[in-house]
Amino acid sequence: MYPERHIFVHIGGNIRFSDPLLEAVDIKQVQDKFPDRRGGLRDLYDQGPQSAFFLVKFWADLNTSLHNEVGAVYGISSQFESSVSMSITSHTKVCSFGKQVIEKVETEFPICEYGRYIYRMEQSSMCEYMVSFIHKLRQLPENYMMNSVLENFTVLQVIKNTETEETLLCIAYIFEIATSGTQRHIYRLVTD
Questions:
Q1: 44-62 tens-digit pLDDT
Q2: 41 by DSSP, 3-state: which?
Q3: Which of 11, 87, 102, 119 could be stapled to 162 by a disulfide with Cβ–Cβ 3.0 to 4.6 Å?
Q4: Phi and psi at residue 41, to the nearest 5°
Q5: How confident is the model at residue 52, as a pLDDT?
Q6: C-beta atoms surrounding 14 within 10 Å
Q7: Tell me: the pLDDT tens digits for 78-112?
Q8: Number of alpha helices (DSSP H) and beta strands (DSSP E) in the chain
Q9: How far is it, in rounded angstroms, from Cα 151 to Cα 112?
Q10: Are strands 183-190 and 23-26 parallel, antiparallel or unpaired?
Q11: Quick check: 124 and 105 in contact, CB under 8 A?
């Protein structure tokens, strides 16, 4: 029997970031929520390729009966796909008030499946900072209070070719509290 599981946020499915129908958001509208120094969102965007930059807004589902269970695992699973074999490095930066608080760096090697190269980072443990943040956020009595906190909380995930350091994908995440179930909307980041 599998342990009880709760999903706070979820992109899910076969998402194609190359979809030309994605709504565009000007990077100027969100860049102040992310680090502005070298390696920050705007710096990375200016280095390009601009077609690799996206914004994901999550409506997080914090309604769960799992309360500080002993042995609870807080994990993040990601899967990426490529037509070219390479090792990739994922840089996940947690930001508060536009400043980087913590960064997790993971390197992944591909598995060839049906002529495609798949990169799986499954149940990658969340750091203590994130687990504590979630616990404290859930203790707030009203959604508007949680949203006020989340207004200044973002995550920047940058996937790079380990060997060349080329940015393959950059996703800026922003959050709000869901009223029922997890939801998301994906935007293409652009400049006007």
A1: 999 999 999 999 998 877 7
A2: helix
A3: 87
A4: -55, -50
A5: 94
A6: 5
A7: 888 899 999 999 999 999 999 999 999 999 999 99
A8: 3, 10
A9: 40
A10: parallel
A11: no
